[in-house]
Write a structure and sequence with these properties.
By secondary structure, the protein is α+β, with helices and mostly antiparallel strands. The chain has a single domain (2-155), classed as OB fold (Dihydrolipoamide Acetyltransferase, E2P), CATH 2.40.50. Helices cover 27% and strands 34% of the residues. The chain has four helices and seven strands, in the order αββαββββααβ. The protein has helices at 2-21, 44-50, 119-128, 133-137, and strands at residues 31-33, 42-43, 56-68, 75-78, 86-90, 105-117, 143-155. Strand 2 (42-43), helix 2 and strand 3 (56-68) form a beta-alpha-beta unit. The longest helix is centred in the N-terminal third of the chain and has 20 residues, at 2-21. The relative contact order is 0.22. The model is unreliable at 1-19 (pLDDT under 50).
Length: 157
């Protein structure tokens, strides 16, 4: 029984690593998800300011990727002027980001809105980002912030 459990655990780890190998590395012009062409994208500062009057923004957003999920690229975060990164998830988990996208500038197309993220979800994201047990345990309050669901992502530079 112990051997079966060890085999299953090893298989899960190898499948996760293999899944990341199939993702095209980030380079200028590479698109993930829906095909995106650079158009009239707003930057993250303009996006944040738009929520003073509207609760939802749909369109193109540009920014620098500062973090990506270390498990399989299931989310990324964009830099924001106030130092708090903006969480980006992908529509229906239909695609994932490569690890080398951190530091790249992207244009994404999708929907952004102010949301409240639960403590449980914040802890899950922290675990996926490779945070320590202490950092995960320190998350005690929900967070109200901008969140984006992207239909597609284009790497600009």
């Amino acid at each position: 029984m112990k051997a079966i459990l060890l085999f299953a655990a090893a298989l899960l780890v190898s499948v996760g690593a293999f899944a990341q190998d199939k993702i095209t590395p980030a380079a200028p012009g590479v698109t993930y998800g829906k095909t995106v062409t650079a158009g009239k994208a707003v930057n993250t500062q303009t996006l944040a300011a738009s929520f003073k009057s509207d609760s939802v923004y749909t369109g193109q957003i540009t920014g620098e990727v500062v973090q990506v999920c270390t498990k399989k690229g299931c989310f990324m975060k964009l830099a924001q002027a106030n130092g708090e990164p903006i969480m980006v998830t992908f529509k229906d988990y239909g695609y994932f980001m490569p690890q080398n996208i951190v530091g790249k500038t992207v244009v994404l197309e999708g929907t952004a809105k102010v949301t409240t993220t639960s403590v449980e979800q914040l802890q899950h994201y922290a675990e996926d980002a490779g945070k320590s047990e202490q950092e995960i345990a320190a998350i005690k309050t929900p967070k109200k912030d901008v969140a984006i669901v992207a239909d597609g992502v284009l790497v600009i530079k």
